[in-house]
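Q: What would this chain look like folded?
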Amino acid sequence: MNTKNTFKKVVDKVVENVLFGTAILSASFIVLIVIVIFERGITPFISDNDGLGQVNLLRFLTGIVYLDGPTFLSNAYGIGYLIISTLYNAFLALLIAAPVATLTALFIAKIAPKWLGSLLRTIIEILAAIPSIVYGLFGAGFILDIVYNLSVSLGVQSAAGFSILSTVIVLAIMIIPTMTVIAEVAIRSVDKSLIQGSLALGATQTQTHFKVVLAAAKSGIFTAAILGVGRALGEATAVALVAGSRRSGITFNLFDTTATLTSTMLLGMKETVGLDYTIRFSIGLVLMVIILLTNLTLNFIKRKVGRVYA
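A: My prediction, written as C-alpha coordinates:
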Protein backbone atom coordinates (compact mmCIF):
# COMPACT_ATOMS: atom_id res chain seq x y z
CA MET A 1 0.00 0.00 0.00
CA ASN A 2 2.79 2.37 0.95
CA THR A 3 4.63 1.45 -2.21
CA LYS A 4 1.60 2.38 -4.32
CA ASN A 5 1.23 5.72 -2.57
CA THR A 6 4.91 6.45 -3.00
CA PHE A 7 4.72 5.59 -6.70
CA LYS A 8 1.69 7.86 -7.16
CA LYS A 9 3.48 10.73 -5.42
CA VAL A 10 6.52 10.25 -7.65
CA VAL A 11 4.33 10.25 -10.79
CA ASP A 12 2.50 13.37 -9.60
CA LYS A 13 5.81 15.11 -8.94
CA VAL A 14 7.20 14.15 -12.34
CA VAL A 15 4.08 15.35 -14.14
CA GLU A 16 4.12 18.58 -12.11
CA ASN A 17 7.75 19.22 -13.07
CA VAL A 18 7.06 18.45 -16.74
CA LEU A 19 4.14 20.87 -16.81
CA PHE A 20 6.22 23.48 -15.02
CA GLY A 21 8.98 23.02 -17.59
CA THR A 22 6.59 23.45 -20.54
CA ALA A 23 5.17 26.60 -18.93
CA ILE A 24 8.67 28.03 -18.47
CA LEU A 25 9.54 27.11 -22.06
CA SER A 26 6.45 28.91 -23.40
CA ALA A 27 7.14 31.98 -21.30
CA SER A 28 10.80 32.00 -22.37
CA PHE A 29 9.79 32.35 -26.02
CA ILE A 30 7.84 35.49 -25.19
CA VAL A 31 10.69 36.90 -23.12
CA LEU A 32 13.21 36.13 -25.88
CA ILE A 33 11.07 37.84 -28.53
CA VAL A 34 10.64 40.93 -26.35
CA ILE A 35 14.38 41.12 -25.60
CA VAL A 36 15.40 40.84 -29.26
CA ILE A 37 12.81 43.36 -30.51
CA PHE A 38 13.62 45.78 -27.68
CA GLU A 39 17.39 45.54 -28.16
CA ARG A 40 17.19 46.23 -31.89
CA GLY A 41 14.24 48.58 -31.63
CA ILE A 42 15.97 51.13 -29.41
CA THR A 43 19.18 51.15 -31.47
CA PRO A 44 18.10 53.94 -33.88
CA PHE A 45 17.45 56.25 -30.91
CA ILE A 46 20.76 55.74 -29.10
CA SER A 47 23.31 55.32 -31.92
CA ASP A 48 24.49 57.64 -34.70
CA ASN A 49 23.23 55.16 -37.34
CA ASP A 50 26.38 55.13 -39.48
CA GLY A 51 26.73 58.90 -39.44
CA LEU A 52 23.07 59.67 -40.14
CA GLY A 53 22.44 60.81 -36.57
CA GLN A 54 20.03 59.57 -33.93
CA VAL A 55 16.35 59.26 -34.76
CA ASN A 56 14.27 61.74 -32.78
CA LEU A 57 11.87 59.65 -30.67
CA LEU A 58 9.16 62.31 -30.47
CA ARG A 59 9.25 62.91 -34.23
CA PHE A 60 9.23 59.16 -34.82
CA LEU A 61 6.08 58.66 -32.71
CA THR A 62 4.17 61.73 -33.87
CA GLY A 63 5.33 62.26 -37.46
CA ILE A 64 2.97 61.94 -40.40
CA VAL A 65 5.56 61.08 -43.06
CA TYR A 66 7.40 57.78 -43.46
CA LEU A 67 10.03 57.71 -46.19
CA ASP A 68 12.56 55.11 -47.18
CA GLY A 69 14.87 55.32 -50.11
CA PRO A 70 18.50 55.82 -51.03
CA THR A 71 18.94 58.65 -48.51
CA PHE A 72 17.84 56.76 -45.36
CA LEU A 73 17.71 60.05 -43.44
CA SER A 74 17.34 59.69 -39.70
CA ASN A 75 14.60 62.33 -39.64
CA ALA A 76 12.57 60.70 -42.43
CA TYR A 77 10.75 58.21 -40.23
CA GLY A 78 7.48 59.26 -38.64
CA ILE A 79 4.87 56.67 -37.72
CA GLY A 80 2.24 58.76 -35.96
CA TYR A 81 -0.15 58.42 -38.89
CA LEU A 82 0.58 54.69 -39.06
CA ILE A 83 -0.44 54.27 -35.42
CA ILE A 84 -3.72 56.07 -36.08
CA SER A 85 -4.34 54.14 -39.31
CA THR A 86 -3.66 50.80 -37.61
CA LEU A 87 -6.12 51.50 -34.79
CA TYR A 88 -8.68 52.94 -37.21
CA ASN A 89 -8.60 49.91 -39.52
CA ALA A 90 -8.76 47.47 -36.62
CA PHE A 91 -11.68 49.34 -35.02
CA LEU A 92 -13.70 49.38 -38.25
CA ALA A 93 -12.97 45.69 -38.84
CA LEU A 94 -14.15 44.89 -35.31
CA LEU A 95 -17.26 47.00 -35.86
CA ILE A 96 -18.18 44.76 -38.80
CA ALA A 97 -16.94 41.44 -37.43
CA ALA A 98 -18.33 41.57 -33.88
CA PRO A 99 -22.08 41.52 -34.69
CA VAL A 100 -21.62 39.06 -37.58
CA ALA A 101 -19.54 36.67 -35.45
CA THR A 102 -21.85 36.93 -32.44
CA LEU A 103 -25.04 36.31 -34.41
CA THR A 104 -23.41 33.46 -36.34
CA ALA A 105 -22.27 31.86 -33.07
CA LEU A 106 -25.77 32.26 -31.62
CA PHE A 107 -27.33 30.60 -34.65
CA ILE A 108 -24.89 27.67 -34.58
CA ALA A 109 -25.15 27.09 -30.83
CA LYS A 110 -28.86 27.63 -30.14
CA ILE A 111 -30.97 27.86 -33.29
CA ALA A 112 -29.61 25.68 -36.09
CA PRO A 113 -30.51 21.97 -36.29
CA LYS A 114 -27.77 19.75 -34.93
CA TRP A 115 -26.55 18.59 -38.35
CA LEU A 116 -26.48 22.12 -39.75
CA GLY A 117 -24.76 23.51 -36.66
CA SER A 118 -22.09 20.82 -36.89
CA LEU A 119 -21.53 21.55 -40.59
CA LEU A 120 -21.29 25.32 -40.06
CA ARG A 121 -18.96 24.84 -37.08
CA THR A 122 -16.62 22.76 -39.23
CA ILE A 123 -16.64 25.37 -41.99
CA ILE A 124 -15.93 28.18 -39.51
CA GLU A 125 -13.05 26.23 -37.98
CA ILE A 126 -11.56 25.65 -41.44
CA LEU A 127 -11.86 29.36 -42.23
CA ALA A 128 -10.12 30.22 -38.96
CA ALA A 129 -7.19 27.98 -39.94
CA ILE A 130 -6.67 29.43 -43.43
CA PRO A 131 -3.33 31.30 -43.72
CA SER A 132 -3.50 35.08 -43.98
CA ILE A 133 -1.79 35.12 -47.38
CA VAL A 134 -4.84 33.32 -48.82
CA TYR A 135 -7.14 36.04 -47.48
CA GLY A 136 -4.76 38.61 -48.94
CA LEU A 137 -4.86 37.00 -52.37
CA PHE A 138 -8.65 36.82 -52.16
CA GLY A 139 -8.70 40.51 -51.31
CA ALA A 140 -6.32 41.42 -54.13
CA GLY A 141 -8.20 39.38 -56.72
CA PHE A 142 -11.79 40.04 -55.64
CA ILE A 143 -12.26 42.74 -53.00
CA LEU A 144 -10.15 45.32 -54.86
CA ASP A 145 -12.35 45.01 -57.95
CA ILE A 146 -15.53 45.40 -55.91
CA VAL A 147 -14.24 48.46 -54.07
CA TYR A 148 -12.94 50.03 -57.28
CA ASN A 149 -16.27 49.51 -59.07
CA LEU A 150 -18.07 50.94 -56.04
CA SER A 151 -15.84 54.03 -56.08
CA VAL A 152 -16.52 54.51 -59.80
CA SER A 153 -20.27 54.22 -59.31
CA LEU A 154 -20.10 56.77 -56.48
CA GLY A 155 -17.82 59.10 -58.46
CA VAL A 156 -15.07 58.86 -55.85
CA GLN A 157 -11.39 58.59 -56.67
CA SER A 158 -9.76 55.29 -55.76
CA ALA A 159 -6.30 53.89 -56.44
CA ALA A 160 -7.51 50.79 -58.29
CA GLY A 161 -9.37 49.68 -55.15
CA PHE A 162 -6.40 49.90 -52.79
CA SER A 163 -8.02 51.59 -49.83
CA ILE A 164 -9.06 51.62 -46.20
CA LEU A 165 -12.35 49.98 -47.19
CA SER A 166 -10.58 47.03 -48.86
CA THR A 167 -8.32 46.63 -45.85
CA VAL A 168 -11.21 46.70 -43.40
CA ILE A 169 -13.23 44.15 -45.40
CA VAL A 170 -10.29 41.73 -45.61
CA LEU A 171 -9.51 42.12 -41.89
CA ALA A 172 -13.16 41.62 -40.96
CA ILE A 173 -13.38 38.45 -43.08
CA MET A 174 -10.21 37.19 -41.40
CA ILE A 175 -11.27 37.74 -37.80
CA ILE A 176 -14.91 36.66 -38.08
CA PRO A 177 -14.10 32.89 -37.95
CA THR A 178 -11.83 33.25 -34.91
CA MET A 179 -14.37 35.36 -33.05
CA THR A 180 -17.22 33.02 -34.02
CA VAL A 181 -15.44 29.93 -32.66
CA ILE A 182 -14.77 31.56 -29.27
CA ALA A 183 -18.21 33.18 -29.02
CA GLU A 184 -19.95 29.92 -29.94
CA VAL A 185 -18.18 28.09 -27.09
CA ALA A 186 -19.20 30.85 -24.67
CA ILE A 187 -22.84 30.74 -25.81
CA ARG A 188 -22.98 26.96 -25.66
CA SER A 189 -21.68 27.09 -22.07
CA VAL A 190 -24.60 29.18 -20.80
CA ASP A 191 -26.43 27.36 -18.01
CA LYS A 192 -29.57 25.70 -19.40
CA SER A 193 -31.48 26.57 -16.23
CA LEU A 194 -31.26 30.25 -17.17
CA ILE A 195 -32.83 29.51 -20.55
CA GLN A 196 -35.52 27.29 -19.08
CA GLY A 197 -36.30 29.89 -16.42
CA SER A 198 -36.68 32.61 -19.03
CA LEU A 199 -39.02 30.46 -21.13
CA ALA A 200 -41.00 29.48 -18.05
CA LEU A 201 -41.58 33.16 -17.27
CA GLY A 202 -43.20 33.63 -20.68
CA ALA A 203 -40.30 35.00 -22.72
CA THR A 204 -40.13 33.97 -26.37
CA GLN A 205 -37.20 32.07 -27.87
CA THR A 206 -35.95 35.26 -29.51
CA GLN A 207 -36.19 37.27 -26.29
CA THR A 208 -34.38 34.51 -24.41
CA HIS A 209 -31.60 34.31 -26.98
CA PHE A 210 -30.90 38.04 -27.01
CA LYS A 211 -31.69 39.05 -23.43
CA VAL A 212 -30.53 36.00 -21.51
CA VAL A 213 -28.14 33.91 -23.58
CA LEU A 214 -26.07 36.76 -25.03
CA ALA A 215 -26.04 38.57 -21.67
CA ALA A 216 -24.81 35.44 -19.90
CA ALA A 217 -22.12 34.85 -22.57
CA LYS A 218 -20.99 38.47 -22.61
CA SER A 219 -17.63 37.77 -21.00
CA GLY A 220 -16.76 35.08 -23.57
CA ILE A 221 -17.89 37.30 -26.43
CA PHE A 222 -15.56 40.04 -25.19
CA THR A 223 -12.75 37.50 -25.11
CA ALA A 224 -13.50 36.70 -28.76
CA ALA A 225 -13.35 40.42 -29.54
CA ILE A 226 -9.97 40.71 -27.81
CA LEU A 227 -8.54 37.86 -29.90
CA GLY A 228 -10.05 39.34 -33.05
CA VAL A 229 -8.55 42.77 -32.41
CA GLY A 230 -5.19 41.19 -31.68
CA ARG A 231 -5.19 39.44 -35.04
CA ALA A 232 -6.37 42.57 -36.86
CA LEU A 233 -3.63 44.69 -35.28
CA GLY A 234 -0.94 42.13 -36.02
CA GLU A 235 -1.87 41.22 -39.60
CA ALA A 236 0.72 42.20 -42.20
CA THR A 237 0.64 40.09 -45.36
CA ALA A 238 -3.05 40.40 -46.22
CA VAL A 239 -3.05 44.12 -45.40
CA ALA A 240 0.01 44.78 -47.56
CA LEU A 241 -1.78 43.30 -50.58
CA VAL A 242 -4.83 45.59 -50.40
CA ALA A 243 -3.88 48.72 -48.42
CA GLY A 244 -1.88 50.66 -51.00
CA SER A 245 1.20 51.40 -48.86
CA ARG A 246 0.43 55.01 -47.93
CA ARG A 247 3.62 56.89 -47.02
CA SER A 248 2.28 60.06 -45.44
CA GLY A 249 -0.72 61.85 -44.03
CA ILE A 250 -3.66 60.95 -41.82
CA THR A 251 -6.87 60.06 -43.66
CA PHE A 252 -10.22 58.64 -42.65
CA ASN A 253 -11.63 58.52 -46.21
CA LEU A 254 -12.62 54.91 -46.86
CA PHE A 255 -11.46 55.11 -50.48
CA ASP A 256 -8.00 56.52 -49.74
CA THR A 257 -4.95 54.30 -49.63
CA THR A 258 -3.70 53.36 -46.20
CA ALA A 259 -0.90 51.58 -44.39
CA THR A 260 -0.47 49.96 -41.00
CA LEU A 261 2.48 49.38 -38.72
CA THR A 262 2.69 45.74 -39.78
CA SER A 263 2.44 46.34 -43.53
CA THR A 264 5.16 49.00 -43.30
CA MET A 265 7.39 46.58 -41.42
CA LEU A 266 6.83 43.91 -44.06
CA LEU A 267 7.27 45.84 -47.31
CA GLY A 268 10.83 45.85 -48.54
CA MET A 269 12.16 44.05 -45.46
CA LYS A 270 14.68 41.94 -47.39
CA GLU A 271 15.90 44.85 -49.51
CA THR A 272 16.61 47.24 -46.63
CA VAL A 273 19.93 47.84 -44.89
CA GLY A 274 21.26 49.99 -42.07
CA LEU A 275 18.85 52.41 -40.48
CA ASP A 276 15.94 51.47 -42.74
CA TYR A 277 16.29 47.90 -41.50
CA THR A 278 16.65 48.57 -37.76
CA ILE A 279 13.85 51.16 -37.74
CA ARG A 280 11.42 48.37 -38.57
CA PHE A 281 12.26 46.73 -35.26
CA SER A 282 11.38 50.05 -33.64
CA ILE A 283 7.99 49.91 -35.37
CA GLY A 284 7.57 46.36 -34.08
CA LEU A 285 8.31 47.56 -30.55
CA VAL A 286 5.64 50.25 -30.86
CA LEU A 287 3.19 47.68 -32.21
CA MET A 288 3.80 45.39 -29.22
CA VAL A 289 3.07 48.28 -26.84
CA ILE A 290 -0.13 49.17 -28.74
CA ILE A 291 -1.37 45.56 -28.67
CA LEU A 292 -0.61 45.34 -24.95
CA LEU A 293 -2.45 48.58 -24.17
CA THR A 294 -5.39 47.57 -26.38
CA ASN A 295 -5.71 44.19 -24.68
CA LEU A 296 -5.50 45.78 -21.22
CA THR A 297 -8.20 48.27 -22.19
CA LEU A 298 -10.53 45.61 -23.60
CA ASN A 299 -9.95 43.38 -20.58
CA PHE A 300 -10.81 46.29 -18.29
CA ILE A 301 -14.04 46.86 -20.22
CA LYS A 302 -14.79 43.14 -20.07
CA ARG A 303 -14.45 43.12 -16.31
CA LYS A 304 -16.79 46.08 -16.04
CA VAL A 305 -19.57 44.90 -18.32
CA GLY A 306 -19.13 41.13 -18.48
CA ARG A 307 -21.04 38.86 -16.15
CA VAL A 308 -20.07 35.26 -15.58
CA TYR A 309 -22.93 32.94 -14.70
CA ALA A 310 -22.20 29.82 -12.78
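The chain has two domains: 2-41, 58-305.
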